[in-house]
Amino acid sequence: MPAVPMYPLRFQPILRRLIWGGRRLGTVLHKPIGSESDYAESWELADYHEQVSVVEDGSLAGSRIRELIRNRGCELLGKAIAPCDQFPLLVKFIDAHENLSVQVHPNDEQGRRLANDSGKTETWVILDTMPGSLIYAGLKRVVGPDEFAQAIRSGAVEPLLHRFEPRPGDSILIEAGTMHAIGAGVLLAEFQEMSDATFRVYDWGRLGSDGKPRPLHIREALESIDFKRGPVNPIVPEKEPIPGGTRERLARSPYFALERLSLNGPTCVGTLDRFTIVMGLNGSCDVEHDNECVRLDFGQTLLLPAALGQCVVTPRGAATVLTCVVP
Ligand SMILES: [Zn+2]
Description:
- There is one protein chain.
- By secondary structure, this protein is mainly beta.
- It is built from five helices and 24 strands.
- It has helices at 24-27, 65-77, 108-115, 145-153, 218-224, and strands at residues 9-10, 14-22, 39-45, 47-48, 51-52, 89-95, 102-104, 122-128, 135-139, 161-164, 171-174, 180-182, 187-193, 199-202, 239-242, 245-252, 257-263, 267-269, 276-282, 284-289, 292-297, 301-304, 311-315, 319-325.
- It is globular.
- The chain starts with 8 loop residues before the first strand and ends with a strand.
- The mean pLDDT is 96.
- Zinc ion binds at residues 103, 105, 122, 180.
């Protein structure tokens, strides 16, 4: 029996509740949250231990991304990426109703050694903020490991961190080794290596859901922090004309390359040699391949399998989408 043809794939969101979460994954992004007040993350594309994305609709509905990679890896990922035994990126929405912990992620070598995991370079695109919301990213000035360790012990890490007030649309690259925290009120999209290696150094003096402080990982953090990583600010992209609108190149790393397309007419997205992730940032689009047409609304994510080659993205009116490839 011939395999079902590939088409733009939508996956069921995997919702995660954490003490700092809120309600906007439901109220703003229309994810199927319950009545609780601590919805923190919507994993849009994941292949991490038990958290594996499942196709939501179409003829592959119910298929897990892990099996699709195993059985149809080249069609899905493309010959530039396959073979791979795990989907290489984790894509999330994050609703920081309260501050996230002050944390650092290891690089790939440190991640393997300290956390039995990959390293984690991540990038954020800000969707919404509240008055006074802050992003902490990088060190304000050169700080040595001893001074930093002392600041951790005395709970005085925050004054050492660079911070700014983010605005919707800001794109920020957090390379492994960069101290950072997402501040209260920020709603963002995150693209990162498929890893959960996080070393917490400060948790704002609060208690976890069990009434105890959440653990810190000071030794691992001190090994992972890049003490030369000074202030990190949003990327300032330039708009280039493309068919149907404009394109801005956002964060780029060895793991991902993001572009923002502002569209008022059709444009082509996708290539035969690698998969493309498309996320709706504003408005609605139709994503078409052959006779298959899939709608992409604000807050939704599609995976365009490499085998599709180019898809035509047509905005309904005006729309903004984010694209992400593994370079
Ligand atoms: Zn992080």
